[in-house]
Amino acid sequence: MNTRLIALDLDGTLLDNQKRLPERNRKALEACISRGIYIVPCTGRTAAGIPEAVRQIPGIRYAITVNGGMLVDMQENKVLDEKLLEPGTVVEIYEMLEEYHVMCDAYIQGDGFSERYCFEHMDEYAVPDLVQELVRKTRVPIDNMKEYIRKRNCMVDKLNLFFDDGKQRLQVRKRLDERGDILVSSSFTFNLEVNGPGASKGEGILRLAQILGVKPEETMAFGDGENDLSMMEKAGIGIAMENGEASLKNKADYIAPCNDDAGVGQMLEKMVLS
Fold first, then answer.
1. Closest among 42, 46, 117, 100 to 77, alpha carbons compared
2. Are 138 and 46 in contact (CB under 8 A)?
């Protein structure tokens, strides 16, 4: 098959466990770009949250961000397509979350916002150290997120939820899934991610492929977490990382070596560049 677009999850996939881009991965991406293949970061992050080491690779122009909620042309600083959360829906979710011990932050128009107390006490919500570092770099503290969204009456790109209690996480997941007007996924233990309808990474690949004139069967995707499941289902070839979740590996066409061993680079060398 002629692969023309490769979508790559970042954390746990393209990046190693220290959030760095392995040199072998970088060289493989550059080699793919030299062959005219679109290399597309496909992440739960915003475009601004994509590491400079990835953004600065010549030829990486498009990104699928906030779990497919936005398709972004990073060169033109332009949103090509979006599937967002309605402000009323977000306010209702915040009201429901008041019953639980949970940190909930929001992406709005590509920027991240967190309630000030949560922002200053992330250890209480079992937020991993490396994620805390990312949050501090990419969030603006707000006193009351629910009222902030109510007053701005703005669409929301994505919600990120962090729990220190696995039982509460399961209870919230059940209540959110029952709504039927949102998509709920997860990227690591004790977190949930909430998107608007139609906003999945897999659908994002198909929408971007259509814009770029690429057939669905000409796409390839790499991932490691639950929020990458739709990529395994929608891409022409789905590749899960060895360090990925079992449910993802069961859906994948191939398994790549783990992210700390530059598994993406190894698979691209074998399947695309050989």
1. 46
2. yes
Locate 265 and state its tokens: 């680079």
Instruction: Give the three-state DSSP class for 104.
Output: strand
Residue numbers in the chain where pLDDT is lower than 70: 1
Burial of 80 (0-12, 13-18, 19+ CB in 10 A): middle
Structural domains in the chain, CATH included, are 5-82+199-271 (3.40.50.1000), 87-195 (3.30.1240.10)
Closest CA to 187 of 7, 40, 13: 13
- From residue 272, how far is each of 43, 80, 197, 236, 264 by CA, in Å? 22, 28, 33, 13, 11
156-202 pLDDT, tens digit each: 999 999 999 999 999 999 999 999 999 999 988 889 999 999 999 99
Residue from 13, 46, 70, 36 nearest 252 by CA: 13
Dist CA 57 CA 268 (whole Å):
16
